[in-house]
Amino acid sequence: MTNPLILEPEKTADACVIWLHGLGADRYDFLPVAEALQEALLSTRFVMPQAPTRPVTVNGGYEMPSWYDIKAMTPARAIDEEQLKASADLVIELIKAEQAKGIDLARIILAGFSQGGAVVLHTAYIKWQEALGGVIALSTYAPTFAQERELSACQQRTPALCLHGVHDPVVPSAMGRSAFEHLKHWGVNTEWKEYPMEHEVLPEEVQDIADWLSKRLR
Predict the structure, then answer these.
(1) Per-residue model confidence (pLDDT) at position 75
(2) Residue 6: its pLDDT value, please?
(3) How far apart are CA 212 and CA 201, in angstroms?
(4) Which of 66, 114, 139, 173 is catalytic?
(5) What sign for the dihedral angle of Cα 86, 92, 98, 101?
(6) Mean pLDDT of 38-63
(7) % the chain with pLDDT above 90
(8) Which of 90, 83, 123, 98 is nearest to 46 (CA)?
(9) ∠ CA(145), CA(80), CA(111), 5° rounding?
(10) 114 is an active site residue
(11) pLDDT in tens, 198-209
């Protein structure tokens, strides 16, 4: 496994954002965003792990960085759940590593774009049993969420920011909205923001993320 890219802050770190890239990208994909956010978050470390390279069924079996295999696109994503769970375990290892460095769980944020977002949603609200500082879900979906599920009181205390493009042809906004509605149904303090964009990130969106993070980490 490739070591994560770590962006240390100007001051001694007392907070951390663990940020997962999307399918086919790499750990450097959100480095410019992390650098921009760190200009205001002077004591926040950014940790950007790298997905393993493996075949992706919907892409003709072509090997690429992937947090899990996608076997079919419709009617909803059919995925390799064991690979998703393994990726969530990797995120949990990173959370524990930050704890070992003295970072309080309330100041650890999980963020992820597209496939990476699905992993952090699964990690925070399915696998991890303690409250975190928050989750940022960008242009993503939650393939492991189910209506009948109930969250623990600790999981409910992890707030979420869900962001999506209304013109997204890769992950339709309805899929992101469904994840948001599940979280709201479960009593999670969650916000929904949408933008006139496709499967991408806009400066306006980065500013909204900066504002949300600043309320929690400054």
Answers:
(1) 63
(2) 98
(3) 16
(4) 114
(5) negative
(6) 96
(7) 93
(8) 98
(9) 55
(10) yes
(11) 999 999 999 999
How many CB atoms are closer than 10 A to CB 23? 20
Q: pLDDT tens digits for 78-118?
A: 899 999 999 999 999 999 999 999 999 999 999 999 999 99
Q: For 5-217, give the CATH class.
A: alpha beta
Q: What angle do CA 133, 137, 141 make, to 5 degrees?
A: 135
**Are 5 and 48 spatial neighbours (Cβ–Cβ below 8 Å)?**
yes
Rounded to whole angstroms, how far apart are CA atoms 150 and 165?
28
Distances (CA, A) of 116 to 67, 101, 168: 7, 24, 16
Domain limits, the chain: 5-217
Identify the active-site residue in 80, 167, 178, 199. 199
Residue 168 annotated to the active site = yes
Which residues make Cβ contacts (< 8 Å) with residue 17, sequence separation at least 6? 34, 37, 44, 45, 46, 47, 108, 109, 110, 111, 136, 213
- Residue 146: pLDDT band with limits 50, 70, 90: confident
**pTM assigned to the model:** 0.96
Q: What distance in Å separates the CA atoms of residue 93 and residue 85, rounded to the nearest whole number?
A: 12
Distance of CA 215 to the CA centre of its chain: 18
Spot the catalytic one: 69, 122, 168, 173.
168
**How many CB atoms are located within 10 Å of the residue 83 CB?**
18
